[in-house]
Write a structure and sequence with these properties.
Order of helices and strands: HEHHEHHHHHHEEH
Strand content: 5-15%
Radius of gyration: 24 Å
Mean pLDDT: 82
Structural class: mainly alpha
Number of helices: 10
Distance between the termini: 88 Å
Oligomer: single chain
Strand order of the largest sheet: 1-2
Helix content: 25-40%
Length: 299
Amino acid sequence: MLGKSVLRLLALLLAMAAFLAACGTQGEAGLESTAATTGSSAETSGSASGTEDKRTSAAAASSESKTTTGDVDEREIKRVVIPEGYSFYQIAATLEENGICGARDFFDAAQNYTVQSFTVPNNPDVAYRYEGFLFPATYELYTDSDPVEVLKKMLNAYYEYSGLPDYDSLILASVIERETRSTEQMAMISSVFNNRIKQGIKLGSDVTAEYVNNYIVQSGTWIKNPDRYRALFNTAWNDDFVGVLPAGPICSPGIRAINAAQNPAKSDYLFFFFGADHQNHYSKTYSEHLAQIEQYGLG
């Protein structure tokens, strides 16, 4: 039989081997593979693109810290804010404005990338494949980055912090995000939209029309046949639109909008508008809605 001292030595060696093996494990299960990612979840509040919003905490997603040769990377690090409610087109433009990567390069990378860590519907009716899935946060990024690496970091942030809502909830959250900045009003607007959905009534949201006009039609050569998206997204006074929800998300919603989409306030309202008095007004019938518009005016 082996002596007790030998057995203790063997046990110590086995423990050290297990520890070294654990240290050698790279990456985190479920995440897109990137050179380095750090930080925590955050919400922004309509801050200017490319600048940090000091009123909120921030999520930092750092680009690779060294080049493949092992030399220290001398590229400039920039802190880039992606606010809640930004569309893919706005995010791409922000990256280009900050020298992170070209907007068109980012678009091409996203259209051809297949996410590994969660499911994104293969939806032929959306103009931007990852619209809604680029999590709004503050990212620390190197200038002249590989657009695929930047995309992965934003998708990783979505995976970690969004709660992975179902697709319809994400679509609804994106509309709510563009309708209001108020957490309380988000829940009420969600109530209106959910009541309309239950009755099979299209949302009738002006922000869906603005999305098509401002971020698809104006994209230039990025999107082929952009006018076809009016019938897929424009839920506001559009006889060509035959659904209830738009075909996909219209922006990247934050946590508050996602929560509101999943947890609407309780009401019987089917209409709302933002008045000239800078207040939201809600009504149960179309006649009440028109009367309130007459009384308060449109904001």
